[in-house]
Design a protein that fits this description.
The protein has 216 residues and is an alpha/beta fold. The protein has helices at residues 47-58, 83-97, 112-122, 168-177, 197-211, and strands at 5-12, 15-22, 29-34, 62-66, 104-110, 130-133, 155-160, 182-186. It has an eight-stranded mixed sheet, with helices on both faces. Helix 2 (83-97) packs across helix 3.
Length: 216
């Protein structure tokens, strides 16, 4: 079991994020993990966030999970997906600082966290991988656009076929926009993947193994 330690991420005046960092000895790659919507109970201790963390640790990857501004012990206020993108960038920078100069940093997110991760990736942030779980494709306030030209590693998108926030039609459009992404639909799963965790974890483990140097 890889041990996590507390970390504070300074984003801007008045915004400091509560975080947990885990770096195995000799780690050269890691993943920043973004949690679901904080106004609906989402935080870095969400069960699916922990599933992502565990899949990454299994592959020997470091992880950094954090609470968005205004969540848990993070200061600041929720910013409807604007300032939260800066939170993601601050977490990526903090993880990069703790890896070798040639290290790989990937990004993963669930629901609102997936929207923030996708927006940062589509804006050109260099990433060694991207994993989006149940991205809220019909939430117009969190739309993103553009090809994933700066994502050099594996891109994974997983959603259920009965997810009201990520309908199959929207997922098909995303697949056409991102042809290199591994888009998986889990039959019968909703936005919370209840009862379908095994298939989700299988997909996460395969993605994490592909991100890990020498294991993809």
């Amino acid at each position: 079991m890889i041990t996590e330690g507390p970390l504070t991420l300074d984003v801007s005046a008045g915004v400091a994020l509560e975080a947990r960092l885990a770096l195995p000895a000799g780690a050269t790659a890691g993943v920043v993990i973004c949690h679901p919507h904080p106004l609906y109970g989402g935080d870095m201790d969400n069960a699916l966030v922990l599933d992502v963390r565990d899949a990454c640790h299994r592959a020997g990857l470091g992880t950094l999970r954090f609470n968005f501004r205004g969540t848990g012990r993070s200061t600041g206020r929720h910013d409807d997906g604007r300032g939260e993108r800066d939170d993601v960038r601050a977490a990526l920078a903090a993880l990069r600082e703790r890896l070798p100069a040639t290290g790989t940093v990937a990004l993963a997110g669930y629901s609102f966290g997936a929207a923030m991760a996708a927006a940062v990736a589509a804006a050109g942030e260099p990433l060694g991988g991207l994993a989006l779980l149940a991205p809220p494709l019909v939430a117009t306030g969190y739309r993103w656009g553009g090809p994933l030209t700066a994502v050099s590693g594996p891109a994974l998108v997983v959603a259920g076929t009965v997810d009201e926030y990520c309908p199959v039609s929207a997922l098909d459009e995303l697949r056409a926009q991102w042809p290199k992404a591994d888009v998986r639909m889990i039959e019968g799963a909703d936005h919370f993947f209840g009862g379908h965790g095994a298939l989700l974890i299988e997909a996460l483990r395969a993605w994490a193994a592909a991100v890990a140097p020498g294991r993809g």
